[in-house]
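agent> Task received from the user: take the single chain below, predict its 3D structure, and emit C-alpha cells. No templates, no multimer pairing.
agent> Plan: (1) validate residues, (2) run structure prediction, (3) serialize to C-alpha cells, (4) report one or two observations.
agent> Step 1 OK, no nonstandard residues flagged.
tool_call: predict_structure(input=
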Amino acid sequence: MTYIEFYDSEAVVNICSSLATAPDRVVILCGDKKPVLRRIPHYKRVLADRGHEVEFLCESVNKNSLQSIVGKLTALVSTYDDIHVDLTGGEDLLLVAIGIVSERFPEKKIQLHRFNVINNSFYDCDGNGEVAIKEAPRLTVEENIRIHGGDVVFCDVRSGTTPRWDMNGDFLRDIDSMWELCRRNPREWNTQLGVFAFAELLQTEENNSLTTVVSIDKLIEKLSAFKAKYVYLKRLIHDLESAGLLTCTNDGETITLTYKNRQIKSCLTKAGSALELKIYSIMRALEENGEPMYAVLNGVFVDWDGEDDENRGETENEIDILAVKGLVPVFISCKNGKVDAEELYKLKSVADRFGGAYARRILFTSTLDRESDFAISFRSRARSMGIEIIDNVTDMSDKDIADKLRNAWRK
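)
tool_result: status=success, residues=411
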C-alpha cells in the first residue's frame, strides 16, 4: 500500500493517514524538499515506535505547472499499486492533477480521501461511496511533540523532567485535599509552600529523605536574598497535618518537615502543583464512548530539537498540562498566583511550535480581577493570541472544571 501526500506546513496533516493505517510507503509531493526532508525522520520515528517500518519518499514538483504535477503523479501511479491519495493538504492545482490522473488510470482504482483534523474523520473523495480508512487516528502527548521535531524529557541528569505520577486512589484523594486547602487562600498557600521550597534548597543536593531539617535563621537569610519572607502559618500547617500530608515541628530554632511520601513532597515544594494536578486529574478522568477523551500529561518538559546529544536542552519549555484529543493538541497554563503578559507569550510560543494551527490554548487562573485596567488589557491581548482565559478557578466546582475541559479541544 502506497500513500501519496500533498505536503502541508501543518505537521499533523502529513501523517494523519499513516497513523490510522500504516502503509508500506509514503510519497510526499512538495515544492521545496528541504522542510519535508527535515520532518521525515520525525514521522518515521513515531511510526517505528508503533512497530511500523514505513518508507518515506520525497518528490518535488512545480506546483504552478499542471503538466509537471500530472507527469509526476503518472510516474508514481505507473510504479506502485494499491495507491491511496490524501487530499487534506492539497492545493487547487494538485487536486485537479490527481483528478486527471485518476481518470486516465481507472484500472488502478486509486483511492482518494480527505481528513478533518477537528472531528477526526476521513471522507471519501473518489466517488465510490466507501471510505478506505475507517479507523480514527490518535496521537499521544509524546508523539505530538515528536512529529513537530521535539521530545518530552522524562529522565535526565537535569532537574527539569516530566513527572511520572502514580495516580492511585490515595494520591487522587490527596490532590483533592491539597486543592481544597489551596483554593481557600491561594496567596497564603503560595507563600507557605515557598518557604517549604526554600527549606529544601538548604538541604544537600541529593536529599532523598522525606524529612527536611533546617535552621530558621538560615532559612530567613536564604529567603531574604530572594526578597521573599519567612512565614509559619499555623492554621494551614495544622490543616496539612490533619490531612495526613506532612508533619511539622518548630522549636523556635529549627523546623522539621516530614512529608507523607515522595509525590507529596514534590507537590508541597512547588506552590503551583495543587491547581495543576487538580486540572490534570479531572482531565485524565474524562471519557468519550467509554474511552479516555484525552491523552494527557502535566509538568511536560520539552526539548525543542529532540536531539540526544551534548547540546540537548538548549531550548526547553515546561508546559503545565498538554493534552491531545485525536490529533488536536490542547496547551494549558495554570497560574495560581500573579499572572502577567509574559505568560501569554510563553503559552502562545510553545503552542505554535508544537501544535500549529490546530492547537488550543487555555490559561486557568485564580487571581485575575474582573474589572481592573490590567485585567481588561490582559484579556484583550489573550484574545488576539487565541488564548482562552478561565478565571476564578478557585470558585469552580469539579463539574464546572470538567465541563470546561470536555470542550477544551473545540474552537
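agent> Step 4: summary for the user.
Residues 221 and 230 are 9 Å apart (CA to CA).
agent> Done.
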